[in-house]
């Protein structure tokens, strides 16, 4: 019995425990399900509230968009309505203008018709008057012919002979009066123009400072000792022959102490030779291969220096926009000379003179300065042209798109083409001022003598000239005329004609004074 109880009691306890656990878990599950259901209900409520809020927001936004679109539509409709009203107003205005124009056209046609009728009536009257005038002219011509025939019978001369006598008398009187008027005009012009011209020229010269130094055709290379001459000459003269062949100049190594003469007509070549020799002497290695290398390097350096000189010149003068080729030509002027005067120095001086004179006369000073600097670029062209340097310079300036007034001033500064601007005579005058200063140029004696002979020959070619002398270094031409064949009035005309012919046919610096001397000598003998 006890054993059975022992076996049954645990089973009963276990069954009770199971029942109690089941009851507990059922309660827990019910609580969990209740909580889950409440959470679900809360979530649904929140979702419904969110959906309602979103719905309200979307409806509010849609309403705002609708109102905005409606306002824009109304505004656009209002604008289009205004445009339509404006177009209607313009259309009515155009219709009114067209109606006025049509009315004016009808009025003009009526006036034109009336004018045509009036002109036709006037033409008819004029035709009748012209016929009357023609009849009267014929009657007058017949009367004049009758009178002329009567006068020819009375005077014993034909009409042609009388007309010729009157023309000769009038011609002589006109020549006399014209000569007097010309002389009077010249004297009046001299009183004013000469004074003003002298004032401008003197002020221009006084405001320009220039050097009087001239250049020659040789350069002197100084050496420290005569021992270097042997190295320069080389074995059997091979070094000096290589130098002369590479540079194109002549090296004179004589008894002159501590000096070598470099002779050549081209200053660029002389400068290349001088610098090359200087580098060779400093280096100490003097042989044909080294000579050729140094000369080539020096030639390149000189080319660079030419460009640098040109750029510095145009910068100093304040000239802008010059073509690179023209800048290079300006730099080459540094190594050219004209009658011993350095061409670059001469061109700079002419440019400054032109700018000053143009400013005094109220002209374009910058354009005058540009033309003054470029007036002699034809002298540095690397080829040997057949044209004179002035015309060649004008062609180069035209090629590189210079101003037409600058081109004309370059070509006309030696009267080789017609002057078309006020700058051209300024360039000519300033070129003469720069070239005619004492010490500026060294003319050849032959050209100087030829100019004097040409002056005397030109003067003696006129009728009535007995003797002619060019004095004051060609600045004055003194002419003796035959007093029996040349009157005082004709002497004045002769002086004027000779001066005009000199201006047209000769080239000369400055001005030439033409003096005509008419001397009357009465000679008698007492016996």
Topology:
Elements: H1 2-155, H2 159-206, E1 218-222, H3 227-233, H4 238-247, E2 250-252, E3 259-263, H5 267-283, H6 288-317, H7 324-332, E4 337-338, E5 341-342, H8 343-360, H9 365-374, H10 389-399, H11 404-412, H12 423-436, H13 445-460, E6 465-471, E7 476-481, H14 488-505, E8 513-518
Parallel strand pairs: 7-8
Antiparallel strand pairs: 1-3, 2-3, 4-5, 6-7
Order of helices and strands: HHEHHEEHHHEEHHHHHHEEHE
Helix fraction? over 70%
Average pLDDT taken over every residue: 79
CATH level-four homologous superfamily name of the domain at 333-436: Hypothetical protein af1432
Q: How many beta-strand segments? A: 8
Strand-residue proportion? 5-15%
Q: What is the overall number of helices?
A: 14
Ends distance: 226 Å
Low-confidence stretches: 211-215
Question: What is the gyration radius calculated from CA atoms?
Answer: 55 Å
CATH architecture heading of the domain at 333-436? Orthogonal Bundle
Coarse shape = flat
CATH fold description of the domain at 333-436: Hypothetical protein af1432
Structural class, judged by helices and strands? mainly alpha
CATH C-level class of the domain at 333-436 is Mainly Alpha
